[in-house]
Design brief:
The complex is a heterodimer of chains A (303) and B (378). Chain A has 303 residues and is mainly α. Chain A is built from 13 helices and no strands. Chain B contains eight helices and 20 strands. In chain B, strands 6-7-8-3-9-10 form a six-stranded mixed beta sheet, with helices on both faces. Chain B has a five-stranded antiparallel beta sheet with strand order 13-12-11-14-20, with no helix packed on it. The chains are: A mainly alpha (303), B alpha+beta (378).
């Protein structure tokens, strides 16, 4: 009897533990998104809230729905949005690639270090999070500006004649994004490489694989889940990044995050901004679903 | 007859022409010696076992043979070629790892084919050889499976197939049966022996299991703290252990600490410590009066009875049965002798009658042939 009760308690507890993340997602992700999604079909008005109601209850049943696809159609018409989306994809894509190229060797090195050193190195990777993100971006402004540390150093060494324009360029945006998101690439990669049975490298060498071949044949394919996880963790926030391009980028470095901000707070066109956000989400969900599929197919295999 | 190669006189008994020659091989890790002056000669087609407890250096030795670890000093010669400085990927040696180390992202087929692909062999030939190999290790129909869909025994066979397909001059097996359950282990053991016989490949097996070493190997080296303590056939090592470590490590043995009181040629008379029990034994090693020696006897060499069995060349001592365990076909007795020492005896239960059965607290005589006693001088 006691055992039975124990099992019921166990079951309830398990349900509760599973329910917790789901309700979190529901409350803080799905509900806000539903609101944004709803607003995207309204029209902007000068009022509080600044958009028309989606359902007019004074009308008869057929005409109650007042929403339209106007905002989405407008996104298609105006080049500005296309350019912003494509630019964001490009910047996020290149940044992700740079993070991968820089992060992979670092993650590999940490994973192969003795356990005591490993913790220290991981600490160093996480350490920047202890300072405000905004502060760190401002620090980069100090480094990259015309009279900044980097230009002064280059001038002093005689490598350049006059200061380089680095701040307010794409170069600065890439530096900012790669710097900020590198840990998000390193940590999942490390988690993946650390679990890797190092004996499979020995086995590949033993079977005739030269060091570079062993990397291509074994290490890289086995770490694909880590690469995908890290890339998503960099690509997704970089795609919607607003602060870094706003502070480090030039006026022409228009990214979707900035456009979104402008629509919401400068133009106060909430419905259009909601449409922009919805499309952004669709762009981001697509690669995630692809990732899910590769995950499933890698754990399953034909009998 | 016995090859008692201890660390100082590590004179290998096969000729200098032997297939694999290991000469004064050493490996230090940050000042800690893992492998210490190992000499070994192995003939072509041998199934050789290296036996030792964990941390004795046996795996390091194996990894040096595979080229995965660089020796601090010493040479390795295989088939008349000095391969000491060859990288792992060029050595005609393949290894079966303890963890099997199968490539998790590749199917069974691709795992087995990997070594041949690196040799740039024609795809048609690879397919054919993989097929043959799958037949040989009885994994027909498993070719498209990934390692995570295989049982322990199946993984073991894939690992074996993957190493064997390159026709290595030397196959190294690191604890090949350790991860399998008891029944599967016995079956696999025989499969491994048959395979070795069929292919004629030279095998070196590393194991901590003396039973495994004994049944598998044609010759065994017992290793301790980086050194080979004794090399010989299973019988030689079991019946003629060269010292206390080997005697103790290899099977069960009773050791009486004793003092030599008389020496006549090979025959010595000893008195067991803390008693007036005298025993006679033969020693091939020089022993002097007053030397402290160990007289070792295997449990199955001792006969147990309620009546004193006397005769020439019989050593006998009296004791009381402290403990007995009945296993059906045989029984194990622990007998406390007059000197207070517990002696383990195993006896076949040859009759069904309970007339002569030895029971708890019985006073019994233990006796054994004088030449069953092993004299241990260190």
């Amino acid at each position: 009897m006691a055992i039975h009760q124990h099992r019921i308690g166990d079951l309830l507890w398990r349900r509760f533990v599973i329910l917790l993340p789901y309700s979190w997602l529901l409350l803080f992700f799905l509900v806000p998104f539903a609101i944004v999604f709803k607003i995207s079909f309204s029209d902007p008005i000068v009022a509080q809230p600044p958009f028309t109601a989606l359902f007019d209850h004074s009308q008869n049943l057929l005409n109650r729905f007042q929403g339209s696809l106007n905002n989405y159609l407008f996104l298609l018409e105006d080049n500005l949005y296309w350019i912003s989306y494509l630019r964001s994809i490009r910047v996020a894509g290149i940044s992700t690639l740079l993070c991968l190229l820089l992060g992979y060797p670092v993650a590999y090195y940490i994973a192969q270090s003795p356990p005591t050193r490993r913790n220290l190195l991981l600490m160093l990777i996480i350490l920047p999070f202890w300072t405000s993100f905004l502060l760190r971006v401002y620090a980069w402004m100090g480094i990259l500006s015309t009279n900044g540390i980097l230009n002064s150093a280059l001038l002093w060494m005689g490598l350049i004649e006059e200061p380089l324009q680095m701040l307010y360029t794409d170069f600065a945006v890439y530096i900012g994004i790669v710097y900020t998101y590198l840990p998000f690439m390193i940590l999942p990669l490390y988690a993946n490489l650390e679990r890797l049975d190092l004996e499979i490298h020995d086995a590949a060498a033993d079977l005739g694989g030269k060091p570079l071949q062993v990397f291509w044949d074994i290490t890289l394919p086995v770490s694909v889940p880590g690469i995908i996880a890290g890339s998503l963790l960099v690509f997704i926030p970089a795609m919607g990044e607003f602060v870094i391009p706003a502070l480090l980028g030039g006026l022409d470095s228009l990214m979707i995050g900035r456009t979104l901000y402008d629509e919401f707070f400068v133009n106060r066109d909430w419905p259009l901004a909601s449409a922009v956000a919805t499309i952004l989400l669709l762009i981001l969900i697509l690669p995630m679903m692809l990732f899910q599929r590769t995950q499933v197919s890698s754990t399953e295999s034909n009998p | 007859m016995t090859t008692t190669a201890d660390e100082t006189t590590a004179a290998p008994e096969p000729s200098a022409e032997s297939y694999l020659q290991i000469r004064s091989l050493c490996k230090d890790f940050d000042g800690i010696t893992a492998v210490d002056q190992v000499n070994l000669d192995i003939n072509k087609g041998e199934l050789f076992a290296i036996l030792g407890a964990s941390g004795c250096g046996k795996s390091t030795l194996l990894r040096m043979l595979a080229g995965l670890e660089t020796p601090t000093s010493g040479r390795i010669v295989l088939d008349s070629e000095d391969i000491t400085d060859w990288p792992a990927y060029e050595r005609p040696i393949n290894m079966m790892f303890q963890s099997y180390a199968l490539f998790p992202h590749m199917t069974v087929e691709k795992n087995i084919a990997y070594g041949l692909k690196k040799e740039k062999i024609e795809p048609d030939e690879i397919d054919q050889r993989v097929k043959n190999m799958l037949d040989l290790v009885q994994l027909k129909g498993f070719d498209k499976r990934k390692p995570n869909r295989l049982s322990g025994g199946e993984k073991q066979r894939v690992a074996l197939a993957r190493a064997l397909i390159k026709n290595p001059k030397l196959l190294l097996l690191d604890e090949p049966l350790a991860a399998l359950d008891k029944k599967l282990r016995e079956q696999t053991q025989f499969e491994l022996m048959n395979l070795q016989e069929e292919l004629g490949v030279t095998f070196i097996v590393v194991t901590h299991d003396q039973e495994e070493a004994m049944t598998l190997a044609t010759r065994i080296a017992v290793m301790n703290s980086g050194k080979f303590i004794q090399t010989g056939t299973p019988t030689e090592i079991y019946e003629y252990p060269s010292n206390r470590f080997v005697a103790d490590f290899f099977g069960t043995i009773n050791i009486f600490d004793a003092r030599v009181i008389n020496v006549t040629g090979r025959e010595l008379t000893v008195e067991v410590d803390q008693s007036d029990i005298q025993m006679k034994a033969y020693s091939d090693k020089p022993v002097a009066i007053d030397d402290n020696v160990g007289i070792a006897v295997r449990p199955e060499k001792i006969s147990i009875s309620k009546q004193l069995q006397d005769g020439a060349n019989i050593t006998a001592t009296k004791g009381v049965v402290e403990d007995l365990a009945y296993y059906g076909n045989y029984s194990i007795y622990r007998v406390k002798t007059e000197s207070g020492q517990l002696v383990q005896v195993s006896a076949q239960n040859q009759t069904r009658s309970s007339d002569h059965v030895v029971e708890w607290e019985d006073e019994v005589y233990l006796s054994w042939e004088q030449n069953s006693s092993i004299v241990l001088v260190d």
